[in-house]
């Protein structure tokens, strides 16, 4: 099981802090366990923390009072998120739900603001992070409009291996077909069919509860 220290060692912004600064960061982070199906944070609540996935898998989604729901993206080991809401000082505009038992880092808003005001490395990280996230969301819109289900699933999986957004990930992803379906917004049965196609194309190997990526570039370009 990954620990907070492991996550911080994989975070480029944390590596550039002095020992004193890093100790202050650790003091202002609380790690909480969130069970599968539980809320990491909820739409409409006040934003008091910057959030990171120490260990686990969560999805960013929006649930409407009408019962309709949509998933935006998955967040795996090493990912930090929620900086936009902190900087805009507005209620949170999405839900984040654990897809499996997960451990989440909650950094105090005051520590986030202190880093923003005093760390050039942290500001550079945020610029890169926001730019990568913008590209990710533009890609999601493009894929939804132009690609078939198999290709959308391929791009959904490939997006989980962005080294800047998910520095804690490897080319072996522990994920179930049900979890993939929740991230991609398709049925488990359809996930199975798509994974078979991707496996036949030599892009990945699907084992029980695990995906091994064999050709990441091919996965990113599948169906183009």
Biggest sheet features: 4 strands, antiparallel
Radius of gyration from the alpha-carbon trace, in angstroms: 18 Å
What is the number of beta strands? 11
Residue-averaged pLDDT: 88
Topology order in helix (H) and strand (E) letters: HHHEEEEEEHEEHHHEHHEEH
DSSP strand content: 15-25%
The CATH architecture name of the largest domain reads Sandwich
Within the largest sheet, what's the order of strands? 1-8-3-6
Q: Distance N terminus to C terminus? A: 37 Å
Q: What's the overall geometry?
A: globular
What does this structure look like?
- With 224 residues, the chain is an alpha+beta fold.
- The protein has two domains: 4-132, Jelly Rolls (Sandwich), CATH 2.60.120; 148-221, Winged helix-like DNA-binding domain superfamily/Winged helix DNA-binding domain (Arc Repressor Mutant, subunit A, Orthogonal Bundle), CATH 1.10.10.10.
- The chain is 44% helix and 25% strand.
- It has ten helices and eleven strands.
- The strands form three sheets. A four-stranded antiparallel sheet has the order 1-8-3-6. It has a four-stranded antiparallel sheet with strand order 2-7-4-5, with helices on one face.
- A hairpin with a 5-residue loop joins β4 and β5 (69-76).
- α7 (149-158) crosses α9 (188-200) and α8 packs across α9.
- The protein is globular, with a radius of gyration of 18 Å.
- The model has no long low-confidence stretch (mean pLDDT 88).
């Amino acid at each position: 099981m990954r620990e907070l220290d492991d996550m911080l060692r994989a975070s480029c912004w944390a590596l550039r802090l002095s020992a004193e600064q890093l100790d202050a960061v650790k003091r202002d982070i609380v790690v909480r366990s969130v069970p599968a199906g539980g809320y990491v944070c909820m739409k409409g609540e006040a934003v008091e923390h910057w959030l990171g996935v120490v260990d686990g898998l969560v999805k960013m989604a929006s649930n409407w009072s009408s019962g309709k729901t949509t998933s935006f993206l998955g967040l795996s080991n090493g990912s930090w998120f929620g900086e936009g809401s902190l900087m805009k000082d507005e209620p949170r505009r999405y839900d984040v739900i654990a897809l499996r038992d997960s451990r989440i880092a909650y950094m105090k808003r005051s520590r986030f603001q202190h880093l923003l005001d005093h760390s050039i490395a942290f500001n550079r990280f945020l610029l890169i992070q926001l730019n990568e996230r913008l590209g990710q969301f533009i890609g999601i819109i493009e894929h939804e409009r132009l690609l078939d289900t198999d290709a959308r699933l391929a791009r959904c999986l490939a997006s989980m291996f962005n080294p800047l957004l998910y520095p804690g990930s490897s080319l072996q992803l522990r994920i179930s077909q049900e979890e993939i379906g929740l991230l991609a917004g398709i049925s488990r049965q359809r996930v199975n069919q798509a994974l078979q196609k991707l496996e036949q194309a030599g892009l990945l190997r699907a084992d029980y509860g695990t995906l091994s990526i064999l050709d990441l570039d091919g996965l990113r370009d599948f169906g183009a």
